[in-house]
Amino acid sequence: MDENKGKGFVYILEVKDIDLPVCKIGMTSRNPRDRCSQINNNSTGDFIWQVAYQASVDNCQKLESLVHKKLEPLRQKNREFFNITAEVAYRALRSIIENQSEIREITIEEPTAICLKEEGSESERKRTKHTATYRKIDTKYTELLQMFTSLIDVKGRAFGQLNEPCFGMSDGNKGVQWNIAILTDINQIRLGVNLEGMAYSNWPIATFILSELENLNIEKLKTNLARPECIFIQFRRDAWRITARPAIVERYIGGREIPLSEIDSKSWASILTEALGCLNDQKQYRGRKKQQITFVNKPKNGEQTKIMEVSPHLTIWTPINLAGDNLERGIALLKPIYEWVSKTSQQK
User: Fold this and answer.
1) Residue bearing the bigger pLDDT, 64 or 297
2) What is the greatest pairwise CA distance in the chain?
3) pLDDT: is 244 or 52 the higher one?
4) Tens of pLDDT along 278-294?
5) What is the DSSP string of 228-279?
6) Directed axis angle between helix 204-214 and helix 327-346, to 10°?
7) CA 311 to CA 324: how far, in whole Å?
């Protein structure tokens, strides 16, 4: 029997540079920091992670399984992410280790460990200063994201990355979603109702577009809204490269984000028709369609225009201030929108 079989680490990752009640718990036979770097490099929709805690044991698979089972009520669906702080997760891990005898803690050499700190170095001083500034700014974001999940009563699912111009939280639903997006490049926060151009259950975006084209409800909807001039429709075209969505010139369907107050039945029908053209008519519009797109940033050793699969992506949003004192009013304002998109995308 291979005496090394099962040896490894159970690691707990936390979001870097911002305090959020979410962590990732996994296991690896390698150095946890190397594994964390791999996760960050491969991620297209989550925050940047860092190792918060780790335990080296003689059976990392079993320990990981026990920790996941213990924290199952806090687990995000089909993911190794848990809506709990890394510190609390580590206490649960320690409790498991200390109250059983089958799994033993051992010492594992880490020859591939990355040196994260050179005490007194110029690079470390710069990094520390930058991180401290980040945390000071992002404390306000943390409170806002936590307020969002509390008001809509969901665990929340992070998206974007702190080193990118957009990050935030959604309710994680496969279909119509509530989300809040923080756009640091334009200093704006948006509360939105979101429906992506993805398969989910029978392509709800296709059902929504086809149902609306058959019976346009935009004018009726506007009469039931308190302030349609404060609500914006963003119908965009996503180009797909495996799981990534690169920035493209043809992003906006209809040419721009449009205040709901400016949209009438004729312009709405035009937007919907263009959006439908982003779905595959050979599959009854239940699939992406290939179109020629133009990259905003020309790829290295590649053409700026390319034929790629695209799909439509609907977000209807209203601005929110950083203090969050209008977040509850924003949810009330968008509730008829959420109900409309949900009902229409489920019609047969």
Assistant:
1) 64
2) 73
3) 52
4) 999 999 999 999 999 99
5) GGG-EEEEEEEEEBTTB---BTT-BTTSS-EEGGG--HHHHHHHHHHHHTTB
6) 80
7) 32
144: helix, strand or coil: helix
The token pair at 28 is 């690896």
Instruction: Look at residues 146, 135, 111 and name the one whose alpha carbon lies nearest to residue 31.
Output: 111
Predicted local distance difference test score (pLDDT) of residue 130: 32
Is 46 exposed, middle or buried (CB count within 10 Å of its CB: 0-12, 13-18, 19+)?
Answer: buried
> pLDDT for 192-209, tens place per residue?
999 999 998 899 999 999
Supply the pLDDT for residue 328: 93
Q: Which CATH architecture has domain 132-346?
A: 2-Layer Sandwich (3.30)
| Among 181, 171, 175, residue whose Cα is nearest residue 195 | 175
Q: What is the DSSP string of 58-99?
A: S-HHHHHHHHHHHTGGGBPTTSSEESS-HHHHHHHHHHHHHT
**Domains of the chain: which residue ranges?**
8-98, 132-346
User: Are 305 and 219 a contacting pair, CB within 8 Å?
Assistant: no
